[in-house]
TrEMBL record:
Pfam families named among the record's database cross-references: SBP56 (PF05694)
Family label: Belongs to the selenium-binding protein family.
Matching PANTHER family: METHANETHIOL OXIDASE (PTHR23300)
UniProt lineage: Eukaryota, Metazoa, Ecdysozoa, Arthropoda, Hexapoda
Protein name: Selenium-binding protein 1
Length: 489
């Protein structure tokens, strides 16, 4: 008789070799003009089973209860970090409202029809609601991760006045009530994404900036100001909940966003994508058990005419690592390309795949390249099933076996309005890329397209992507229980 286990997979390689092929995707969809069109954001269920009659279609929409949430990132009540606990079940999605600070908790016992079970509400828009989030002095909820002990952590980015503040909200997995904040003592200056690694007793978080600034839109004059935009990684003791080290990445590391440890539960390194200058840093543990970082990939700026600034960066806004820790993927939202790097040697990544999916640098666009250090030039527009891909590649999700990469195009609606206003009108898209997992290489699937410009309530912007059974960016794996912690040897 098989032994009952908790959610997910025992190891990353179990997921890679024997994980179920994804059949549906969960994608958050944002109404880009909530003041003009009073329809809420929703969670879309998308059929990605090639044998299904509704393949490449939205088959369900779970609408939120209120308008103007700006759904952004979301996660689970439990994941593979709870694999050894048979009492745990992955049956709830936790979705924070990036603007509203409401937290929606959806039950997914019926995978194809999630149902809102509870709302942790904030009263900035509705004065009669008790401020269940803001009373803890934090706002702008971002990344959701489950933890092995039955708690749900959500990173925050600001205080109640919109200044930067890196903290984590703790929700009890069973009661679904807020327990408080996570950090003991000094907080990080800014917040954004995070990843924990109990084997070395650390959690590391990244930084975007002060919500009062970036929520108003993109302002070039603010980008290199350290009081507005972050440039550090923050290292916490996982067991003590204390900030123990801050790694300053310098100007080249401005706006470190998505952060990923390697999936190997004993790995003592990972990568972070820095949006401002499109640099990728590797962070790693040193022999004295402190942590450091080094720049390992740089996407050069291009000098241009016809843009808001004389140079245009790639603006790297998402990265992920394949489950076997062989490949690193990241996007350049403005340059318009997706890249695949072999990270077999993590300190010297090797480019093995690149694909352009739109962006600002198009042959029929208004921008002219004056200096092009990587000699890529202007690109042809891309069409899938007769639909032109507008905007640039943004959020990504990779299949467990590494063979399929799904990509959406929306970043954050105030910035979408500025950089890609055409997507506000026409809606964003979601496409699929077929991946060569042997030697590298990316091929666009011309038979798969989700067009969010054809939604029943008008155009929507699609952002983060998840699978019901876990994926490359939501699940964290633990080392064997009897494994010694190297940081304590």
């Amino acid at each position: 008789m098989a032994t009952k286990t908790g959610p997910g997979y025992k190891t990353p390689m179990d997921a890679y070799h024997s994980g179920n092929r994804e059949k549906i995707l969960y994608v958050v969809c944002i109404n880009p003009e909530p003041k003009k069109r009073l329809t809420p954001d929703y969670l879309a269920v998308i059929d990605v089973d090639p044998s299904s009659p509704t393949y490449s279609q939205v088959i369900n929409r779970t609408y939120m209860k209120y308008v103007g949430d700006e759904l952004h990132h979301f996660g689970w009540n439990s994941c593979s970090s709870c694999y050894s606990d048979p009492s745990k079940k992955r049956n709830r999605i936790i979705i924070p409202g990036f603007v509203s600070d409401r937290i929606y908790i959806l039950n997914v016992d019926n995978l194809q029809a999630p149902v809102i079970e509870k709302i942790v509400r904030n009263c900035r828009s509705f004065a009669n609601f008790y401020e269940e989030v803001r009373k803890h002095g934090i706002t702008t909820m971002h990344t959701t991760h489950c933890s092995p002990n039955g708690e749900i952590l959500i990173s925050s980015m600001g205080d109640n006045d919109g200044n930067g503040k890196g903290e984590f909200l703790v929700i009890d997995e069973h009661s679904l009530k807020i327990k408080g904040t996570w950090t003991n003592g000094q907080r990080a200056k800014f917040g954004y994404d995070f990843w924990y690694q109990p084997h070395y007793d650390v959690m590391i978080s990244s930084e975007w900036g002060a919500p009062r600034s970036f929520k108003c839109g993109f302002c070039p004059e603010h980008l290199d100001k350290p009081e507005i935009y972050g440039r550090c990684l923050n290292v916490f003791s996982w067991s003590k909940h204390k900030l123990i080290q801050t790694i300053d990445l310098g100007l080249e590391g401005s706006t470190p966003l998505e952060i990923r440890f390697l999936h190997d539960p004993k790995a003592d390194q990972g990568f972070v994508g820095c949006g401002r200058y499109s640099n990728i840093f590797r962070f790693f543990r040193k022999p004295d058990n402190s942590w450091d970082a080094e720049k390992v990939i740089s996407v050069p700026l291009k000098k241009v005419e016809g843009f808001d600034t004389p140079e245009i960066s790639g603006m790297t806004t998402d990265i992920l690592i394949s489950m076997d820790d062989k490949y690193l993927y990241f996007n350049n939202w403005l340059h318009g390309d997706v890249r695949q790097y072999d990270i077999t040697n993590p300190s010297k990544p090797k480019l093995v795949g690149q694909l352009f999916l739109g962006g600002k640098l198009l042959k029929d666009g208004p921008i002219k390249i004056i200096e092009d250090p990587d000699n890529k030039g202007l690109q042809d527009p891309v069409f899938v099933k007769g639909r032109r891909l507008l905007g640039g590649p943004q959020m990504m999700q990779l299949s467990l076996d590494g063979k399929r990469l799904y990509i959406s195009t929306a970043l954050f609606s105030p910035w979408d309005h500025q950089f890609y206003p055409e997507t506000v009108t026409a809606g964003s898209t979601l496409v699929k890329i077929d991946v060569n997992t042997e030697t590298g290489g990316l091929t666009l699937d011309l038979n798969f397209l989700i067009d969010f410009g054809k939604e029943p309530d008008g155009s929507y912007l699609a952002h983060e992507i998840r699978y019901p059974g876990g994926d490359c960016t939501s699940d964290i794996y633990l080392a064997e229980p009897n494994s010694s912690c190297c940081s304590r040897k």
